[in-house]
Amino acid sequence: MKAVIMEIHKDYCIVVTEEGRFLRRKIPSGVFEIGDEIMIDQELTFEPAKTPRQSMVGRYLATALVVVVVIVGAVLGIRFIRQYYASEDRGLAEYEAVAEEAVGEEAEEPQYEYEESAELTKDEAEEALAAEEEKEGNVVYKDIYFLDVENWVQEKIRGIMFSYKVESGTVLQVQLENISSEPGFDGTFELFMLKADKSETRVIDIPFKNFVPGDFFEDAFMLQEGETSFRLEVFEEF
Fold first, then answer.
1. 38: helix, coil or strand?
2. Most buried of 3, 4, 47, 115 (most Cβ within 10 A)?
3. For residue 117, what pLDDT is reported?
4. DSSP 117
């Protein structure tokens, strides 16, 4: 049975039912507040006898409280429904705007941009893109090296000894020597310089054409602020 809390005492409270009956419930103070609606059984009827007038007043009061609860619930429900449909309309409008923008971008002809030259023709750009894709398909080695070393670090890659060290924390020294007995090496050693968050700062290209056994290469590069490592990628032309 539903009832509304009318009085709150230390160890119990007085509630009024929908029929206008006043009941005592063992509910200590601090659990509910006056006006809260709870579910109860019919035990522990409030001791003071009710006159017919009190019974009528209680019935009217309970009816009035029920009406107030219904009205408040209806108002809140209407407000929620309005907000829901408003947000749905706004989301639909944003979706349609994004879809139209995507369709417009797909309809545009792709533009090729290269830092090496801002005056490339369309044919030159397509050739450069094709060459870059072909180059990426010929990666024969890839690894990351750190720049906190002062002694030589060596790695044998495709018959070529790759060596590097850092002088005074500011200069990267690189050496490459063909120690194989195979024909000359055609390709590129690329050093992608990285910051601590792995973002690239620049790319150092070291190209070779017919780098035959016994050939030796050495160079030094100033480190830029924030560079802590590099990713070495080796491309070989077949």
1. strand
2. 3
3. 43
4. B
- pLDDT, tens digit (0-9, with 9 covering 90-100), for 52-87: 555 565 666 767 777 777 787 776 767 766 666 566
Bridge partners of 160, per DSSP, are 157, 178
How far is 99 from 230, CA to CA, in rounded Å?
40
Max Cα distance, the chain (Å): 118
First to last CA, the chain: 87
- Spatial distance between the Cα atoms of 217 and 224, rounded to a whole number of angstroms: 22
Which pair of structure tokens corresponds to residue 183?
A: 């024909």
- In this structure, the dihedral spanned by the alpha carbons of residues 129, 235, 199 and 197, taken in order and rounded to 10 degrees, is 150
Among 17, 19, 13, smallest CA distance to 4 is for 17
> Residues in the chain with pLDDT < 70?
42-60, 62, 75, 77, 80-100, 102-120, 122-123, 125-137
Q: Check: CB of residue 15 under 8 Å from CB of residue 25.
A: yes
**pTM exceeds cut of 0.70:** no
Structural domains of the chain ordered from first start: 2-76 (no CATH), 137-236 (2.60.210.10)
CB atoms within 10 A of CB 164: 20
| 200 to 147, 164, 203: CA distances (angstroms) | 14, 19, 8
Instruction: Look over the chain and give the mean of its residue pLDDT values, rounded to a whole number.
Output: 79
SS3 225: coil
> Which H/E stretch holds residue 80?
helix 52-107
Tokens of 135: 């180059």
